[in-house]
């Protein structure tokens, strides 16, 4: 949504208005290091000076595929300060996937892991990305060398609410990923709402175990911390042992449902280690009511479930004070208009299932270079059509009950079956395929490919299908199993019956 530009607005500058004294601790890492708010200011200034020194301009894309580290956070903050567009990339993406992203985003700079430098330098040559620097998990690499001589002072570039702060890709029902343009205004609006709604203060310590290449870990978690001036217990990845050790020093945790089911699977997890915790938040995928109840029984805490999307940030949330209801995502957040509509666009009565639509300052500016797709996904009165199906009960609690888009969420990561089907169908010896999600105790949903082989062709095995996919796409998108069948079930119109396949393989 395009907001009126009523003056300068920069996400970093807004964060920094809430920073406590420079010597206040911002990050405590799993290796025992501590970084202060002063470090964040100085190091992000070096990044901003470096980006300007490279000759990059406001609006240029800075693509980043690195392991989670404090230096990765400075890179994000420095990019915002410099007025450039932060383009985070999942570390699991293969070269083929990166080629698409760098080309589509027309990136000016790629920062990658030291280990990938050689291959990605060649790729940058192919796609025309002019600059490449490296950043290893421990902070070493050509980027840190280049940053050393830079000044630790930098005045944030003048940006306005509608200027793009980040470009985050999500795949889609056509199989081709699309860039989601998030503006400074979108990210400021959502983070400030969440800080208030979830009661963040400087006294909090947020247990941050999420990756920082997605909206959840990057804008929701980091946004709440920086806009309240609190501390973060910073884990480089979600490892259940480190989470157990960190809980006694934390007050808030955010995670996808898998984070909570993995905690419940640990016999050592219990109420005592949660004594200092005030809030557990879950999102990015449905939290099963059984998980909600088991967690309450073990820890004494009711998990607060919220609902959002990359395109919109957070839209609804269960309350901080008041009943958190299992199986629901609570109420619309302040400043977010939510409505549930029938196919003809009329509002649904309470209890009826319809398409969930949202409008507000949190809603993205549009899809990168795809004005037609952007127009298609908005109603004439400015509501974004989420593709989620929902209902609202008589007391206002909203439940997400399904999706009109064909999408699987595995461990909080979205996978669009069409993308995988197109790749499987291109393997020699394969006639066609259908990719589905089936219930999985760990990931919520697990990917299964149902495959029909070509008659008379050399026989392709399930293992060969998996191997062929591994070379081309991120591991989390590779189906956990491949079922070879004679034919796919179809209805009278010739459409593959995925519900039938799900029932068969669940
Ligand atoms: C890893 N693997 C997965 C997977 N993650 N498979 C399916 N689904 C996943 N989510 C596979 C790898 O390919 C590998 O397979 C094997 O599991 C081990 O990899 P790993 O990296 O060691 O796994 P692990 O550390 O256990 O990671 C699982 C996880 C992680 C759940 C901790 O995926 C995670 O942190 N998920 C959170 C994602 C997130 O931040 N989502 C928010 C999106 S924003 P192999 O076969 O190669 O060995 C959003 C908006 C909103 O949705 O509302 O928030
Ligand atoms: P992403 O594209 O990664 O931003 O994922 C957004 C999608 O995740 C939404 O459209 C929903 O389908 C799903 N989602 C996020 N939070 C929840 C939740 N609490 N319950 C159910 N689905 C959710």
TrEMBL record:
Record-annotated membrane-spanning stretches: none
Gene3D superfamilies noted in UniProt: 3.30.300.30, N-terminal domain of ligase-like
Stored InterPro entries: AMP-bd_C, AMP-bd_C_sf, AMP-binding_CS, AMP-dep_synth/lig_dom, ANL_N_sf
Residue ranges constituting the AMP-binding enzyme C-terminal domain according to the UniProt record: 419-495
Record domain AMP-dependent synthetase/ligase: where: 22-368
PANTHER family reported for this sequence: ACYL-COA SYNTHETASE (PTHR43201), ACYL-COA SYNTHETASE FAMILY MEMBER 3 (PTHR43201:SF8)
NCBIfam families hit by this protein: PRK07514.1
Family indicated by similarity: Belongs to the ATP-dependent AMP-binding enzyme family.
Name of the molecule in the record: Malonyl-CoA synthase
């Amino acid at each position: 949504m395009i907001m009126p530009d009523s003056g300068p607005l920069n996400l970093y500058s807004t964060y920094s208005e809430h920073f406590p004294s420079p010597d206040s601790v911002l990050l405590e890492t799993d290796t025992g290091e501590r970084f202060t708010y002063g470090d964040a200011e100085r190091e992000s200034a070096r990044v901003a000076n470096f980006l300007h020194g490279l000759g990059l301009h406001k609006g240029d894309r800075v693509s980043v595929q690195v392991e989670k580290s404090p230096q990765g956070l400075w890179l994000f903050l420095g990019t915002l300060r410099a007025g450039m567009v932060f383009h985070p990339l999942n570390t699991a993406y293969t070269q083929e996937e990166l080629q698409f992203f760098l080309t589509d985003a027309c990136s000016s700079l790629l920062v990658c892991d030291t280990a990938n430098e050689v291959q990605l330098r060649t790729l940058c040559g192919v796609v025309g990305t002019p600059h490449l620097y490296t950043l290893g998990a421990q902070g070493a690499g050509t980027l840190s060398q280049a940053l050393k001589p830079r000044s630790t002072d930098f005045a944030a570039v003048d940006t306005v609410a509608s200027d793009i702060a980040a470009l985050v890709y999500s795949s889609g029902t056509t199989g081709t990923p699309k860039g989601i343009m998030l503006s400074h205004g979108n990210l400021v609006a959502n983070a400030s709402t969440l800080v208030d709604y979830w009661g963040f203060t400087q006294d909090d310590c947020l247990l941050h175990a999420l990756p920082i290449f997605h909206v959840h870990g990057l804008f929701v978690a980091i946004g709440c911390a920086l806009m309240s001036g609190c501390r973060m217990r910073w884990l480089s990845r979600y490892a259940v042992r480190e989470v157990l050790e960190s809980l006694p020093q934390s007050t808030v945790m955010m995670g996808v449902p898998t984070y909570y089911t993995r905690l419940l699977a640990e016999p050592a997890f219990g109420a005592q280690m949660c004594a200092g915790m005030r809030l557990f938040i879950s999102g990015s995928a449905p939290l099963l009511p059984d998980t909600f109840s088991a967690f309450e029984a073990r820890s004494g805490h009711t998990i607060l479930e919220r609902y959002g999307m990359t395109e919109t940030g957070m839209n609804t949330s269960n309350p901080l004070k008041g009943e958190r209801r299992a199986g629901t995502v609570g109420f619309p957040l302040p400043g977010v208009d939510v409505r549930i509509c029938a196919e003809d666009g009329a509002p649904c009565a309470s209890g009826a299932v319809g398409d969930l639509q949202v409008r507000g300052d949190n809603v993205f500016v549009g899809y990168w270079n795809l004005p037609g797709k952007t127009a298609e996904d908005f109603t004439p009165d400015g509501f974004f059509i989420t593709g989620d199906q929902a209902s609202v009960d008589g007391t206002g609690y909203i439940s997400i009950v399904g999706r009109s888009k064909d999408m699987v969420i595995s461990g909080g990561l979205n996978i669009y079956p069409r993308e995988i089907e197109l790749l499987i169908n291109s393997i020699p010896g394969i006639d066609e395929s259908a990719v589905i999600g089936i219930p999985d105790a760990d990931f919520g949903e697990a990917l299964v490919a149902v495959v029909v082989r070509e008659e008379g062709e050399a026989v392709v095995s399930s293992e060969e299908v998996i191997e062929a996919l591994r070379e081309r796409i991120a591991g989390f998108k590779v189906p956990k199993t491949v079922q070879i069948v004679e034919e796919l079930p179809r209805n009278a119109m010739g459409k593959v019956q995925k519900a039938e396949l799900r029932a068969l393989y669940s």
